[in-house]
Amino acid sequence: MPPEGYVRWALKIEYDGTGLVGWQRQINGLSVQQVLEEAASRMVSGRPVATATAGRTDAGVHAAGMVVQLDVPEETRFAPHHVRDGLSYHLKPHRVAVIAAAPAAPGWHARFSAIWRSYRYTILNRPTRPVLNPEHVWHIRRPLDIAAMRAGAALLVGHHDFSSFRAVSCQANSPIRTLDCLDIQRQGEYVTIDARARSFLHHQVRNLAGSLQLVGCGQWTPERLGAALAARDRSKAGPTAPPEGLCLTGVGYPTDPFAS
Amino acid sequence: MPPEGYVRWALKIEYDGTGLVGWQRQINGLSVQQVLEEAASRMVSGRPVATATAGRTDAGVHAAGMVVQLDVPEETRFAPHHVRDGLSYHLKPHRVAVIAAAPAAPGWHARFSAIWRSYRYTILNRPTRPVLNPEHVWHIRRPLDIAAMRAGAALLVGHHDFSSFRAVSCQANSPIRTLDCLDIQRQGEYVTIDARARSFLHHQVRNLAGSLQLVGCGQWTPERLGAALAARDRSKAGPTAPPEGLCLTGVGYPTDPFAS
Asked: What reaction(s) does this enzyme catalyze (chains A, B) (predicted)?
């Protein structure tokens, strides 16, 4: 519930994480949260606002369908397209914008009401470095074996202890997660890894991508990925893939907050 | 033919046109040609080199599959991957890179041997401004009617006098061109216009996109696009679409210079 005297909005936002310290406010740089809250405060003439997100992203990670809640004083009266366009205006010149806005249903919370999150990890797989989108891909020169990656991914889907793919800094109570899908596709020079789960551990998608890459390059067999999972030991899995290849693509709720 | 004492390479290059003055050397800024020739000259220890392209692009226009010829002194001996990787290395930090390199067949010329060029024009069609790729799309807020755009495009395909879609600065001898295809697709918030022809007039694709947009927004009927073509008068067609949405996607030859 929003605080007394506040109303809650659901926002769908998009951002380029390049040069930002991630979603969460930090003292060492500009965060998506700070940029969004400052824009929202300007929209309500400087009054205080509060936000919470469906999922935190790390420095350099992008989002194309992040969902955020924004609590603003209830005396402010906006139509949804005014919130969307007004916020997007005040968000300039930052590479953060609001794609959709809707009044939140009673009891709705951006994080606690969410039932799934989806991420896409994008690899540019060719000898030549990327020049059209270097901040949005992981560049891997060696040709990736997609069939082997898929065989490895199949061993990771489902309800498992993902300790081997969890950042040491992860604050979740449990390392157990249910990975609903981990799909690997090739489109020309691009290889994408699409992951969906109710929730993810810290760095989980980047750690999965880092290990899948070892399988794709032939350094690991698919079975070794299964063994890495079973070991429940971060040191038994592959490296953390770089943030720039990662994009949060969507968040799901029992009822779409933006439908109507 | 390359000059006496030189050998010719075929290069497939990719570049982000943002901040560059286009393909051709200019005194008022950095061009793709200058960047490429300086990198090539460094690769051959400062000896002179020469380039020619399959198609000139304007300032801000991108390329994903441009083909260029590079003449270097014949005493330089490189394997194809050394040309590709060496040039891409010397091209740093510019957003220009070589995807493929191959020794040119006798008599091959990047421009005169080409039998088609293809371009993609990309529109982001949604209320909110682009933040993930603002230098690679034209942002149009009003929902575009794809069926109407396709009906209009169908009137433009074929062998026509394209004077209405030709820049006043165009230096071609004839305004007659054969437009092989002009395909319009929607993928979510993106609308793409794919054009292919043996050759194009100056600004032709951007002028076609600018008029198709009027049809898509409902300001013009598809038939008006046909009338604009028939008028053979630049003032009867729509505006020139901005350069950032345009990308040269490929160049075709009777035999693929990079096959093998």
From this structure: uridine(38/39/40) in tRNA = pseudouridine(38/39/40) in tRNA
